[in-house]
Amino acid sequence: MKQKALKALLILGAAMVIVTSTKVAVKAEKLGLFNYKEMEATAYCDEGLCYDETIPTEGITCAAEKEYIGKTFVIYDENWMLIGIYECHDTGGDYRIKNGSVVDIYMDSEDECWKFGRQKVYVQIVDAKG
């Protein structure tokens, strides 16, 4: 009996993943977004220069893996509401940033960073500056 219940839960879980992924794709398509990446967004505040030797600026600067330096990130929350448009100037030190699963958004204060927390986001990475 337990095996049947477990199997049913696994099938239900797989179906939920497919439905959720389909809903995300349909919503993205309605918005005209085809090349997006699901990521986690965090926030950071730091004094000093970015990887590309620019000064980090709130509302403009984000950090991601090195290959994205100079590219523009259009970041949406999990409801496809625009969070902002950022330029990737920094790389960050966290291994998750370096493996491409996290984008780190620059903010002026630690309080703002804590309020932002961690969020599931959808990101369009555009080969252009702001």
Features:
Barwin-like endoglucanases; single chain; 3 helices; globular; disordered N terminus; alpha/beta; six-stranded mixed beta barrel; 130 residues; 2 domains
**Helix amount, in percent?**
25-40%
In CATH terms, the superfamily of the largest domain is RlpA-like domain
Which structural class do you get from the secondary structure elements? Answer: alpha/beta
CATH A-level architecture of the largest domain: Beta Barrel
Radius of gyration: 18 Å
Measured distance between first and last alpha carbons: 58 Å
Count of individual beta strands: 6
Largest sheet: 6 strands, mixed, barrel
Structural account:
The protein folds into 2 domains: 1-30; 34-126, RlpA-like domain (Barwin-like endoglucanases, Beta Barrel), CATH 2.40.40.10. It has a 6-stranded mixed β-barrel. It is globular and about 35 Å long. The chain has 3 helices and 6 strands. The model is unreliable at 1-22 (pLDDT under 50). The protein has 130 residues and is of the alpha/beta class. A hairpin with a 4-residue loop joins strand 3 and strand 4 (82-90).
Topology at a glance:
Layout: H1 2-30, E1 36-44, E2 61-63, E3 72-77, E4 82-90, H2 95-98, E5 102-106, H3 110-116, E6 119-126
Parallel strand pairs: 1-5, 2-4
Antiparallel strand pairs: 1-6, 2-5, 3-4, 3-6
Question: What would a concise description of this structure say?
Answer:
With 130 residues, the protein is an alpha/beta fold.
